[in-house]
Specification:
single chain; alpha+beta; Glutaredoxin; four-stranded mixed sheet; 16% strand
């Protein structure tokens, strides 16, 4: 069972939840209240030493960073892929996800 440690507001966590929904994957959510500082709890820091959300746990594997989580979910789930089949199109997609991570997401932060 996939477990997602997340918070409701950050766009990073929202995009992982969108991939889970798009791929129709079952998952269990663990809400991390960032306003209460739950991301700094010792148990959570064992999962994600950066104290960031989201974090995905798949069995014994722990995956952080929203774009990496989305690519992982697309890779492990059969069915309609979210990434293009052609290498050049995948490269273009990855340029866009890099742009979102490096420029758009920081603009959404306080």
């Amino acid at each position: 069972m996939l477990e997602l440690y997340h918070h409701g507001s950050p766009v990073y966590a929202a995009k992982v939840r969108m991939v889970l929904a798009e791929k129709d994957m079952a998952w269990t959510g663990h809400y991390i209240d960032l306003l209460k500082g739950e991301q700094f709890a010792p148990d959570y820091l064992k999962l994600n030493p950066k104290a960031l959300v989201p974090t995905l746990v798949d069995g014994g594997s722990i995956i952080g960073e929203s774009t990496v989580i989305c690519e992982y979910l697309d890779h492990i789930h059969s069915g309609t892929p979210l990434r293009p089949a052609k290498a050049v199109e995948t490269a273009r997609m990855r340029n866009w996800t890099k742009f979102i991570d490096e420029f758009v997401h920081p603009m959404c932060a306080a």
